[in-house]
Amino acid sequence: MRRWLLRAFYLVFVISFNVALLWALGFIFPMAQFANPLTALHEEHFRRAIPKEIEAASLVAYGSTSRLWNLLFPIPARKSCGGAALRISDETAADLEAHGLVRLRSARIGQGYQGERLEDFYTYGPWRPTPVPNRWRGDGKWAGSLHCFGENDPAFDVNAVYEAAREAGGYFTEASASQLLLIPRLRLVVITFDK
Q1: Nearest Cα to 163, choosing from 145, 141, 179, 146?
Q2: Residue 87 near residue 143 (C-beta atoms within 8 A)
Q3: Residue 87 DSSP code
């Protein structure tokens, strides 16, 4: 009887301890900030997708609906969207504010894809001044793609980008499945995709 009682107390203790530990981890784990080992890889990809004339400096935010699960178990009908925002230098922003579309005339191919098999995918149409067309806003692909990555980074101000897209002073272009928005006053270039 005594042995049974000790085993029962031990079992209750172990279960209680594990429950308390899991509860604590469930509370603390979502608040912890972990470095993403793929950040450098994503930054390099998005930097390659932006024409060299824009001179993107550093990654501000990125995200996507694609997850490792999608790569391991691809579902053909599943679409993904996302994008990134990269900082541009003060000099680049000042030059764009002064020369605008003249400076962007030759900025048509993503710098890392020129001469590669994906060049067509990262070849953009002519640049146009903002505001962006209505089909980009509201329920449009661009707005959805911006939301796909903007919601993943609370430090990124999606509303400021939406506002800048509706006002004069920026520039935009698009490729087959991606869009670029250049906002000199915010010192940002935003690339979004939907495929």
Answers
A1: 146
A2: no
A3: E
> Residue 41 has which token pair?
């890889």
Polymer length in residues for the chain: 195
List of residues 6+ apart from 70 with CB closer than 8 A: 78, 80
Q: For residue 81, what are the β-bridge partners?
A: 194
* CA atoms within 13 Å, Cβ hemisphere of 148: 24
Which uninterrupted H or E stretch holds 21? helix 2-28
What is the C-alpha separation between 64 and 126, in angstroms, rounded? 26
> CA separation (Å) from 77 to 25, 166, 178?
36, 32, 19
pLDDT in tens, the chain (195 residues): 677 777 777 777 878 887 777 776 666 655 544 555 666 666 777 888 888 888 877 888 777 665 554 555 555 545 667 788 889 988 888 888 888 888 888 888 888 877 788 777 788 999 999 888 887 776 666 666 677 666 666 677 888 888 888 899 999 998 887 888 999 999 999 888 776
Region of 115 please: left (phi>0), alpha (psi -120 to 50) or beta.
Answer: left
DSSP label at residue 133: P
Q: Where are the domains of the chain?
A: 2-31, 39-194
